[in-house]
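Structure tokens please, single chain.
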Amino acid sequence: MLPDAPARVASLDLIRGVAVLGILAINLAGFAGPSAATLSPNLPTPGSLADEAAFALNFVLFEGKMRALFSLLFGASMMLFLERTEAAGKNGELLQLRRLAWLVLFGALHFFLFWWGDILFIYAVAGVIALMMRELAPKTLLTVALVIFAGWHLSGAALSYPDVAAEEHVRLGIATPSQLEEQAEFSRQLADHAAHELAEYRSGFAAQIVAKLSERPFQLLQSTYLSIGETLPLMLLGMVLYASGFFTGRWQGWHLKIAAAVGTAAGLAATLTALAWLWPRHFPPQAMTAALLYWMAVPHLLMATGYAALLVLAAPRLARTRLGGRLIAAGRMAFSNYLGTSVVMTAIFYGWGLGLVGTMGHAAQLPFLLLGWALMLAWSKPWLAHFRQGPLEWLWRSLTEGRKLPIRR
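Here you go.
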């Protein structure tokens, strides 16, 4: 999500275009059902084999990888923004802080007006912390990022283990009375929460806003607390990668090929191993929560890095193709596309729109994913043929600069 500039980095736009399409594949379950549906194809009700297969495919290819890509790109984008503004004689840090402050507002509006799964607010908070570390040497920044990343996820994995073990013991029929009671209470709470969410999402536009303001006004802060240990170190790693020339052609081709091969292969192997354990158990919620929050962190990072290296390698040729041109355009307008898909999908699924929420499993959501991809690829390039930026990119940059910037070409 970069502001327009005289010279853009095509690989960043290409990766961002792929990421904004890929993240819809994961977010769609959150639009189509309650939040529990993002954990398992069997929540809030049992799904079919086709639902499990669709969920498994997303788990392997997209889950966590697209979020990691976005976080890496956000860190790289911050460095590029500072580099450009300071080269123009402006106060880059001040402008970056203003940019992040406006992102807080965009994130809050996104959450309260449309969707519970906003990431913009979290990115803004993590971005402020990352900005304070920008003067650290790349090696120091890398060390800090890896320490935070490892510490957060190892501690989370350790703390979540008793719940996962209890869930497995219940399945095997060897649970203690306390484990049986805890798991039964967890299941009741999960079902009650899902029912409450569905009732809210089937209500009108104003009613949903009132419910969020009255029942969970601080959910964005809670979400930030739960994910800062992933988001912040990934942003720092993105800053390190940008400084090393990963996105800008300073890495030698064979270095990128090694990163692409090792990252993708190692991450895929670990992901398939996890899938081989989770799928026969029908994606149990305690295990899935722990996996998505903590256990799969390293495979997600490996595959995201592998994907990024593959796209950097492919960028020169792919950019000259019709598909590549449309992916790059979608990436240049990632901010507009990310928020735009929330508007479109909530209009399809929520009560103030077509009201389809809670009526279809993961397999039946595929046409809506293809619709979202088609819309992003269809409108981005024609828009940029007439305008310098996407509409929200232009608004964000104008607010940051404190003046109305030209938008027409």
